[in-house]
Design goal:
3-stranded parallel sheet
Length: 84
């Protein structure tokens, strides 16, 4: 799926598109590997790691997990239930 997204963005000239000085595209995923692939191929497009389960929170919403995420995402989106 990542390759289809990358191809569509490139084909439509959206990899460097901006709106009011900000990137026009923002990618979000619950999948670590998808975000790693997107970070490698489209480093200029912001990527948000969606965290939806307590298991994912236990893995990623820690000092070490957040430090690791810095290599492949630009933001974190925890589910509201995890924040409450």
């Amino acid at each position: 799926l990542e390759h289809a997204v990358i191809e569509a963005l490139e084909r439509n000239g959206l990899t460097h598109a901006r709106v009011r000085g900000r990137p026009a595209v923002l990618l979000q995923s619950f999948e670590e590997q998808s975000l790693r692939t997107l970070a490698e191929r489209l480093p200029g497009i912001p990527r948000t790691f969606l965290i939806g389960t307590p298991e994912a929170a236990a893995r990623w919403l820690t000092t070490d997990g957040l430090r690791e995420m810095r290599a492949f995402v630009t933001g974190v989106g925890p589910a509201r239930a995890l924040v409450d």
